Amino acid sequence: MSAQEKAKAKAEQAKGKVKESAGRAVGNERKEAEGRADQAKGDLRGAKEKAKDALHD
Q: What's the CA angle centered on 30, arms 5 and 18, to 5 degrees?
């Protein structure tokens, strides 16, 4: 996995965790859901890069 793409995936996951926690703290279900969605996007980005690496090996 390229370092840049790995960093993007981790950043997206972290952003999602913060957004989800903030939404939960203030009772905003929409922000909480957006946070979960951001985390899922980060997970998918990481999985895509791992699959690309597996194909190149």
A: 45
Q: Are 45 and 9 within 8 A, CB to CB?
A: yes
Q: How far is CA 15 from CA 43, 54, 56, in A?
A: 12, 27, 30
**pTM of the entire structure?**
0.82
Number of residues that this document lists for the chain: 57
Q: Which of 18, 45, 23, 42 is nearest to 33 (CA)?
A: 23
End-to-end CA distance of the chain: 11
Angle at 3 between CA 7 and CA 39, to 5 degrees: 30
User: Tell me: the pLDDT tens digits for 11-38?
Assistant: 999 999 999 999 999 999 999 999 999 9
